[in-house]
Amino acid sequence: MKNLIQLTDEKLVELYVNGSNDAFEVLLNRYKSRVYTYIFLIVRNKELAEDIFQDTFIKAITTIQQGRYVDSGRFLGWINRIAHNLIIDHFRKEKNENTFSTDGLEYDYVNNSKYSEKSVEDVISNEQVLHDVVQLIDFLPESQKQVVKMRYFQDLSFKEIAERTDVSINTALGRMRYALMNMRKIATENNMYLEIK
Prior knowledge:
- This protein has 197 residues and is an all-alpha fold.
- It has nine helices and no strands.
- It folds into two domains: 1-99, Orthogonal Bundle (Rna Polymerase Sigma Factor, Chain: A); 119-197, Arc Repressor Mutant, subunit A.
- Helix 3 packs across helix 6.
């Protein structure tokens, strides 16, 4: 298993196709937190994120076993695309289940954007912003990255973060403040427009 960790994603996929379940386990461990984070930032619901996360890796396994995986040198991008498509499928299905006719109403409250839920287009747009935010987190110093992930992805309080990282609450708050400042600075320098609809 130790030797497998050194291998490229493509080599691990090749080994998995040839029967090595350990190779896929290394891939899973390599990317599970990033894929889950990607999903959670879009759906904002732990249970739903976990369901889509599991479906993503099941679909990846099926696709690889059917010989439909195309080696592009970007396994993470490929698996995030699977997650992205499953998220869109979920929102489309949810939207279809929640529709009804407004033919007999004098005023159409349902199709008025003022009262409506986010459209699939808004979700996709937001998904891109959230994907950019995840990328920004990777540029932070480790101590700031740790606080951001604990606060927003694990939903921990600053008291819990302070206890887990063995620092004072003020230090944890300070790290979060500097993390947000650094993310804004990086976004500005790279002309990233981060606004969620």
